[in-house]
Specification:
CATH topology of the largest domain: Chorismate synthase, AroC fold
Structural class: alpha+beta
Distance between the termini: 26 Å
Radius of gyration: 21 Å
Number of strands: 18
Shape: globular
CATH class of the largest domain: Alpha Beta
């Protein structure tokens, strides 16, 4: 399988499967001499870690990261940084009954017809388990951004259509679902549990802000900053849409409503989401990431097997009732 690498000057390659021995990444493009705070990297993984509450999968993984190369005496050496996270709580037997059928909403069908075979245990490479490696790589990127005084933050702005009316990023880590609005958090939690108790799932939206963006990042036309961001976000399992700034709403506005006026202090509004012509304008970068409902549900569904025979899919296992919650950390 190709295309497991993201980035150019700073890039990372991930490896591993949901029920394999381990998952991990190799990060390249890190300059020498960067302080590598292993406790910080682990704290980022802990935010995404499964099995922490009723709003996430019951799969218990420690997600303890081990740095294998590229760091000496606490600093980067300028060579590739390899990190590994060993899987600890696989229950592959839960998937024996689906090894020859295509689970609706999953990549089983497309992986089978593209590669001729698939790892049916938890989805294999297509599982969101892979995103733990992205968080580890992202933590290294954050250490670099910290030195440049650039801050990335995220939170949940909608669950199943229940939308936040205000955004408070300071409260996110105190919320079990990383909710941005305390006034709708209870309703959002209730929606998740209601779907879970009905053996179903529900979608949601994560909001990502980047503060301290310098002007001039991105290239015109074929390497636009917003295009790169959309590529990164759409590469996350379960993401079906991305908005920059006003996003889809801009199609309903007039130019006089959508344009950001400028005065001597800078932009008076931020409908553009911090990007104009594919290049950062120095304002806060705003990005909404739309996650579909978790396809792994415990409701009987119609499907076919690898021979084309019609049958009923009845899943077992442990699954997130709302992938947007932990997905918000991945997007960040």
């Amino acid at each position: 399988m190709s295309s497991n690498t993201f980035g150019k000057k700073f890039c990372f390659t991930t490896f591993g499967e949901s029920h394999g021995r381990a998952i991990g990444c190799v990060v390249d493009g890190v300059p020498s001499g960067l302080e590598i705070d292993e406790a910080f990297i682990q704290s980022e993984l802990d935010r995404r870690r499964p099995g922490q509450n009723a709003f996430a999968t019951a799969r218990k993984e420690g997600d303890k990261v081990e740095i294998l190369s590229g760091v000496f005496e606490g600093k980067s050496t300028g060579t590739p940084i390899a990190m590994v996270i060993f899987n600890e709580n696989q229950k592959s037997g839960d998937y024996e009954n689906v090894k020859n059928l295509f689970r609706p909403g999953h990549a089983d069908f497309t992986y089978f017809y593209k590669y001729g075979l698939r790892d049916y245990r938890g989805g294999g490479r297509s599982s969101a388990r892979e995103t733990a490696a992205r968080v580890a790589a992202g933590a290294i990127a954050k250490l670099m951004l910290n030195a440049l005084h650039v801050k990335v933050q995220s939170g949940i702005c909608a669950i199943g259509g229940i939308e936040a009316r205000s955004y408070d990023f300071d409260r996110v880590n105190a919320s079990e679902i990383y909710a941005l609005d305390a006034n709708v958090e209870a309703a959002q939690k209730e929606a998740i549990l209601e779907a879970k108790n009905a053996h179903d799932s529900i979608g949601g939206v994560a909001l990502v802000h980047v503060l301290g963006m310098p002007k001039g990042l991105g290239e015109p036309l074929y390497y636009k900053l917003d295009a790169i961001l959309c590529e990164a976000m759409m590469g996350i399992n379960g993401v079906k849409g991305v908005e920059i700034g006003e996003g889809f709403q801009a199609s309903r506005l007039k130019g006089s409503e959508n344009n950001d006026a400028i005065d001597s202090n800078g932009f008076k509004t931020n409908k553009s989401g911090g990007i104009l012509g594919g290049i950062s304008n120095g304002d806060t970068l705003t990005c909404k990431v739309y996650f579909k409902p978790t396809p792994s549900i415990f409701v009987a569904q119609e499907t076919i097997d690898t021979e084309g025979k019609e049958l009923t899919c009845k899943l077992k296992g442990r699954h997130d009732p709302c992938i947007a919650v932990r997905g918000s950390v991945v997007a960040e």
